[in-house]
Write a structure and sequence with these properties.
The chain is mostly helical. It has a domain at 66-184. It is 58% helix and 7% strand. The protein contains five helices and two strands, in the order ββααααα. A hairpin with a 2-residue loop joins strand 1 (6-12) and strand 2. Helix 3 (98-117) packs across helix 4 and helix 4 packs across helix 5 (153-184). The longest helix is centred in the C-terminal third of the chain and has 32 residues, at 153-184. The termini are far apart. The relative contact order is 0.07.
Length: 186
């Protein structure tokens, strides 16, 4: 008798009693793993997003196309709208769009800076983390200005812009340092 076909069921007086293994059900008998095939979870590949610029098997050059142009266009529009919001808030212009554009600036400026720092995350995770970080930066700036009795709308806009610019500067310095270190190493 082949010992693989018997399983220990229970112990009687310190001695295990072997019982025959139950036969495989229909679905278990047809499972591809019994024939050495990989399960579907083992065959998943990492797919590049359409915004990554390269496709699998490419020579590494950015892929031309409308998706890449659209992302650049939307980024330019977002920067313009955020700058208009900051400008309207700093000048105190009475405009019906001032509140909306200023709110967009207060979320977009620190959000873009934090998103640039988190370039290794998945796109959805980066968006969630950058929006949460932008809200946290805005709240910390407001709390600090209120605690120091220096609160003003202009002061808050300038502080958020300064913090966002500092984070973007640190990210760009870190990336430049990483590029020069890669060039030096053979």
């Amino acid at each position: 008798m082949d010992p693989r076909y018997f399983l220990p069921a229970h112990y009687k007086g310190g001695v295990s009693v072997l019982t025959p293994a139950r036969p495989l059900s229909d679905i278990e008998a047809r499972h591809p793993a019994l024939r050495g095939a990989k399960s579907p979870m083992q065959t998943l590949r990492i797919k590049l997003s359409s915004f990554s610029g390269t496709a699998p098997g490419d020579d590494g050059r950015p892929r031309p196309g409308p998706a890449k142009d659209l992302v650049a266009l939307l980024a330019g529009v977002a920067v313009t709208v955020a700058a208009a919001g900051a400008l309207l808030a700093l000048t105190g212009t009475a405009s019906p769009l001032r509140g909306l554009l200023t709110l967009f600036f207060l979320l977009a400026a620190p959000g873009a800076a934090i998103g640039a720092a988190l370039h290794g995350l998945a796109p959805l995770g980066r968006v969630v983390a950058s929006v949460a970080g932008a809200v946290a930066v805005d709240l910390l700036v407001a709390q600090a200005l209120l605690a120091l009795h220096l609160w003003s709308v202009r002061g808050g806009i300038v502080a958020v812009a300064a913090i966002s610019s500092l984070v973007l500067l640190l990210v760009s310095v870190r990336r430049l340092r990483g590029r020069t270190e890669r060039r030096r190493t053979p």
